Amino acid sequence: SEPSPPALPERQTRRVLLTNAPRTAFEAGNTPPTHTHTPPPPHTAKLEGWGGGELSSRTPAPAALNPWDVMLCVSGTAIACENALVVAIICYSPALRTPMFVLVGSLATADLLAGLGLILNFVFQYVIRSETVSLLTVGFLVASFAASVSSLLAITVDRYLSLYNALTYYSERTVLCVHTMLAGAWGVSLCLGLLPVLGWNCLRDRAACSVVRPLTKSNVTLLSASFFLVFLIMLHLYVEICKIVCRHAHQIALQQHFLTASHYVATKKGVSTLAIILGTFGASWLPFAIYCVVGDPDYPSVYTYATLLPATYNSMINPIIYAYRNQEIQRSMWVLFCGCFQAKVPFRSRSPSDV
C-alpha cells in the first residue's frame, strides 16, 4: 500500500477550503432573488386632442407629427397672410370706411384670427400640452370661425338691403344697422367660443365627447344647427337677390323697348357669381357640419381632419371673393405697395350689390 500524504496543519487546511469554495452565489449555480423598486407612476391629468390622442398636463410624451396637423398649420398660415393684407389695406385707406368695407374688414379680421388659431393649435399641440391651453385654443378657433360665418351672413344681408332699399341705403340708418349686426355677430361668436372654456367640454366625461375633442356632442350639435340656420338664411337672401337683379334687368329692358345682349350677360354673370359664392360656402362647411352631427367619436380621426380641412379653405377663399375683386381695394393695394396710382386705369365705385 502507498503511503498516505502527510497531514496539513489546521491553518493551511482552512486556507485550501476557502480557496476552492465558490466566490459568489452565481458561481455555485444559485441565483439570488432580485429586489427592484418600481416607483409608482405620477398622477397626470389626461386630455384628448383634436385627433383623439391623449395629452398629459405634467409629463407629456413626445407626440408624433401628424401630417393632417401640418396641413392645417399650412392652411392657417396662408389664411393669416391673405387676410392680414386685407385688414392692413382697409385700415391704411381712409376712403374705405363705408358700411360695405366695414363688413369686409370684419370678415377679414375673423378669418385672420382663425388662421392664427390654427397656427397656435399646431404649436400648442406639439410644444405645450395642457388642459388650459387646449381649451383656450379650441374656444379661440370656435369663436373665430363663428365670427367668419356671421360676417358672411351680415354681408349677405347688406347686399340684399342695398338692392331692396336702394334709395335709402346710403344713410345714417344703414351705418347703425351695420354696426348693430356686427356687434351681435361678434357677441354671439364670443359666447360660443367661451362655452368649452367655461365647462361645456368632455374632459371629465369621455362618453360625452364628439368627433371634435374636447367639445361635447351637444356643443357641436348646437354649432352645426347654427350653421344650418345661417346657410338657409343666406340661401333665401341670395334667391331674393337673384329675383331683384332679374326684375331690374327686365325693367331696364322695358324702358329701352328691347333686351340688349349686355343686360343679359350682366344678369347671367351676377347670378353665376352668386351661385359660386353660395356654392363655395356650402361645399366648404356642409361636410364638416353634417359629420359633426352624424359622426361617432369612435370613428377614425382621419374623417374629422378630412372634413375640417376643406372648411378652413373657405377662410382662404373669402378675401379673393369679397376683397381682392373689389376695384377700390385693388387701387388701395396699388397705392400701398407702389406709392403711386396710374390714372389711366379706370376705377368705378362699387356698391354692395355689385357681385
UniProtKB/TrEMBL annotation:
Keyword field:
Cell membrane, G-protein coupled receptor, Glycoprotein, Lipoprotein, Membrane, Palmitate, Phosphoprotein, Receptor, Transducer, Transmembrane, Transmembrane helix
Q: Which residues cross the membrane?
A: 68-93, 100-128, 134-155, 176-200, 220-239, 271-290, 302-324
Q: By its UniProt entry, which CDD domains does this protein fall under? A: 7tmA_GPR6
Protein's recorded name: G protein-coupled receptor 6
A GO-annotated cellular component: plasma membrane
User: How does the UniProt record describe the way this protein sits in the membrane?
Assistant: Multi-pass membrane protein
Q: Which GO terms describe its molecular function?
A: G protein-coupled receptor activity
Tell me the Pfam families matching this sequence.
7tm_1 (PF00001)
Could you say which protein family the record assigns here?
Answer: Belongs to the G-protein coupled receptor 1 family.
- InterPro entries assigned: GPCR_Rhodpsn, GPCR_Rhodpsn_7TM, GPR_3/6/12_orphan
